[in-house]
């Protein structure tokens, strides 16, 4: 599982807390929200709402 996160996102911390509690093996992909990376076309294919965090596994993004 990949967690696409922004380092200043409170919601990312919540997702990490749940992942740790469940013992999930998750890879971190850092998205530079302050630099506008979440507004890029590449990230828009991952999350069309341009928000972090996003979770991905086996081509499925939630």
CATH class: Alpha Beta
From the spread of the alpha carbons, the general shape counts as globular
Q: How confident overall, as mean pLDDT?
A: 91
Task: Estimate the strand proportion.
Answer: 15-25%
The order of strands across the largest sheet is: 2-1-3-4
Order of helices and strands: EHEHEE
CATH topology: Glutaredoxin
Estimated radius of gyration = 11 Å
Summarize the structure.
By secondary structure, the chain is of the alpha+beta class. The protein has two helices and four strands, in the order βαβαββ. It has a four-stranded mixed sheet with strand order 2-1-3-4, covered by helices on one side.
List the helices and strands and how they pair.
Layout: E1 2-5, H1 10-22, E2 27-30, H2 41-46, E3 54-57, E4 60-61
Parallel strand pairs: 1-2
Antiparallel strand pairs: 1-3, 3-4
Structure description:
- The protein has a four-stranded mixed β-sheet, covered by helices on one side.
- With 62 residues, the protein is an alpha+beta fold.
- 31% of the residues lie in helices and 23% in strands.
- The longest helix is centred in the N-terminal third of the chain and has 13 residues.
- It is built from two helices and four strands.
- It has one domain: Glutaredoxin, CATH 3.40.30.
- It is globular.
